[in-house]
Amino acid sequence: MTLRRHFIAAAPLALATPMSGQALARAGDAPTERNRQFIRQAFEKWAAGGTTFFRDVLAPDVRWTVKGTSPAAGTYQGFDDFMKRAVVPFASRLSTPIRPTVRDLWAEGSDVIVHWDGAGVAADGMPYRNSYVWIFRMNNLRATEVIAFLDLAPYDDVIRRVPAPTRGDAQMNPHPYTGMWVTDDGQIRHELLPNGRYDEARGSRQSAYQGRYEVQGNRVEYWDDTGFTADGVFVDQNTLHHGGMIFRRR
């Protein structure tokens, strides 16, 4: 019986009697330890303000299953499907992204289990808190399958209570910075659209990040569809400082 199947059958007992990832990562078991460290570091980066957890961890063809009986439960096939139907609809209803606090982490072979608490703020100002157990099946330091347990009631309440933003809504004042902004090496192409949306390409990845933005004076605030926020400053009509990088108008 794999660790994952055993956990599904005895999740309450596992949570009631936690043990450290070190205990399950047997001495000399290099793949187990690599998987444990990879997931631990990904959560640490997320907790510290990172915004790329899912891109860092998930394989393109990941199979993500949310256990439960609400409309959000079910299986999502592939990274794009999971982001489009599960992550974006929820994250777009938040004013601050969820940040994790890891309670316990277990690893054995290709399986890594994380028990964590998440907290954020919905767009209507109400706090969101939940506890999660995610079971990762790893292959070459990418999760090819994930089973997720959480309390779906507060998740569904945010979806029901907070209206989804309309893609074409222009929730900003007119400004002179609409257009394409590009780093000097051409690797990041950042387009500020006139409808209050932005679309960012990175290298060969088209639309790597998308969301809404607002300009006030020479400052710009971003709300990405995946849940993170950012800002930038237009130092002049043709120069944007954003994310520690310099963009030029094209």
From TrEMBL:
This is Atu4866 domain-containing protein. SUPFAM superfamilies: NTF2-like. Keywords: Signal. It comes from the Bacteria. Transmembrane segments: none annotated. Residues 1-25 form the signal peptide. PANTHER family: BLR2505 PROTEIN. InterPro entries: Atu4866-like_sf, NTF2-like_dom_sf, SnoaL-like, Uncharacterised_Atu4866. It comes from Caldimonas mangrovi. It holds the Pfam family SnoaL_2. Residues 39-145 form the SnoaL-like domain. Gene3D superfamilies: 3.10.450.50, Uncharacterised protein Atu4866, PF11512.
